[in-house]
Design a protein that fits this description.
This protein has helices at 9-30, 33-38, 41-58, 66-98, 103-108, 110-117, 121-140, 143-154, 159-166, 170-188. By secondary structure, the protein is mostly helical.
Amino acid sequence: MTQAGTGDAAAIAALLARFLPGLERHLAQHAGPLIRRHESPQDLAQSVCREVLERLRDERLEYRGAAAFEQWLYQAALHKLQNRHRFWRAERRDALRQASPDPVSSSVDPVADLAKTQPTPSQEASRREASAQVAAAMQQLPERDRQVVQWCHFEKREHAEVAALLGITPSHSRVLLARALARLAVLATGGK
């Protein structure tokens, strides 16, 4: 595993795959109810792995052994949980601000209630624009990455099924998805 310290992507991916099950348990244990209501430990772990891979693309990893790497990875996971908690709290505050001040009127007019839940034209335009950017970025991905993202993210297939289709292990499927999502994010944002 000392190759991980030289920036060897395969060695880093192998490390991430090795610690992925423990990382998912760590995230499940430390995520509060607000985060658990919106995100699964598996999604959070994939996001942490993607961010680690992106970070290590620009920085050099000083590999000091498996225990030190695991501790560093778990610290990155806790940082991720803090950010997600802030995000979901902000979303909740925003949703509370948009709530109807008059609860009686919301029960009288179901059509008005439905209209309140619909996106505004600008929100819909932003969603369409983001969707078009992701679709264009998907076309730029290598075929294998595109398949993994399609199967796991859009079709919601289990990693065991994707692994069987590709002839790999489920943990390798998770790593492939994390890498593909990282590439997709870079392509969709124009490298920002």
